[in-house]
Amino acid sequence: MQAILEEKMKLEARAVWDITTVREYDDLIAEMKKLGKEAHIGRIHAICSEKGSELPPGHPDRKMKGRVVFQGNNVKDQNWEVALFNEMASTPATLEASRIADAYSCFKGHTMQSRDVEQAYLQAKMQGPPVYVMLPRELWTDEMYHMKCPVFRLEKALYGHKHSGVYWQEFCDKQVKAAGFELVSECWPCVYFNHDSKLLLIVYVDDMKLAGPASKMAGAWKDIGRHIKLEVPKGDS
Question: What is the CA radius of gyration of the chain?
Fold first, then answer.
């Protein structure tokens, strides 16, 4: 339970949902019907597993890992009918693109580095109809216990939502282009090239792979990291 509460606090710190918008479900539905607007209502649930279970007891890397996710297979609209989603899909880079980056890194004076994106989906904002969510009772605030069925607005692309991957990819595409990279081809999704630094960037969901001149690496990571939060590899500051 402690691991799940820690994850919930991390999500709230990143403004994944706006707890100040909490309201009764019945009031939300009445308002949406009166205004003739669409809203999606879903549930949030927690999952927990033991990370590093293969390690001996007492090892610092063996611990419980909590996750709080959106239940994407049970989303209703304001009429309590199954919510309909537009046909959208994310398209990560292919294995061939990754191999090309490996080959490019073998050129004289070149290298290859990679970075993980920190909670990638949560860096993108929700789009489309407003999404309201319900928390499991064990994660309710004191205020919610005085309500019948509390719901509140989901603001970021939480894991589990049908379009979270799409929203993240659109956000990522915009930010890497702002950092000076251009899409190589419409047929090669998430493969970018910077003509000034001669660096090749491969994006696979929340993993970034950069190949090219070693002298340009630090500057490129700095530019990419201006609006995309990257994890710092161990040993780096």
Answer: 21
Amino acid at 12: E
184: its two tokens: 């190589």
Q: Which residues contact 127 (CB under 8 A, 6 or more apart)?
A: 163, 167
Cβ atoms of 62 and 53 within 8 Å: the answer is yes
- 185: Cα separation from own chain's centroid: 24
Per-residue pLDDT for the chain (237 aa), expressed as one digit of tens each?
Answer: 999 999 999 999 899 999 899 999 999 999 999 999 999 999 999 999 999 999 998 898 899 999 999 999 999 999 989 888 776 667 778 889 999 999 999 999 999 999 999 989 999 999 989 999 999 998 999 999 999 999 999 999 999 999 999 999 999 999 999 999 999 988 888 999 999 999 999 999 899 999 999 999 999 999 999 999 998 766 454
Cα separation, 220 vs 13, in Å, equals 28
pTM confidence score: 0.85
Whether 80 and 38 have beta carbons less than 8 Å apart is answered as no
For 110, list phi and psi in degrees, rounded to 5.
-100, 165
The Cα–Cα gap between 30 and 91 comes to 38
Measured between alpha carbons, how far is 97 from 229 in angstroms, rounded to an integer?
Answer: 23
* Closest listed residue to residue 134, CA positions, set 215, 47, 70: 70
The token pair at 138 is 């064990």
